[in-house]
Design brief:
Helix content: under 10%
Shape: globular
Structural class: mainly beta
Oligomer: single chain
Number of strands: 11
């Protein structure tokens, strides 16, 4: 069983930065594709950024140039560095692990609020 634990959310002013972390239990992290998704109130969950086992990345257009996803396999951790935050980035951010085979796993989410 894989467990994902996110951290790093909080309240930040527009233009500020936050760094989210997601630590995964288990031994499948290295080959897994990791992703960050977000869900704002009244909206569907959407992809923010994805990084595969070879460290190739994909970003939503809305965050390109502002957010950076990275991973540290030795610590089973994926990060999301968020810069130049905007009020529209306010959402619950979820970590997702997609293994090479089998079902995906989700974290419990961490709240990010961008407000003055």
């Amino acid at each position: 069983q894989v467990q994902l634990v996110e951290s790093g959310g909080g309240l930040v002013q527009p233009g500020g930065s936050l760094r989210l972390s997601c630590v995964a239990s288990g031994s499948i992290f290295r080959l897994a594709t990791m992703g960050w998704y977000r869900q704002a109130p009244g909206k569907q969950r959407e992809l923010v950024a994805v990084i595969d086992g070879g460290a190739s990345t994909t970003y939503a257009d809305s965050v390109k140039g502002r957010f950076t996803i990275s991973r540290e396999n030795g610590k089973n951790t994926v990060f999301l560095q968020m810069n130049s935050l905007k009020p529209e980035d306010t959402a619950v951010y979820y970590c997702k692990l997609l293994p090479a085979w089998g079902a995906a796993y989700w974290g419990q989410g961490t709240q990010v609020t961008v407000s003055s």
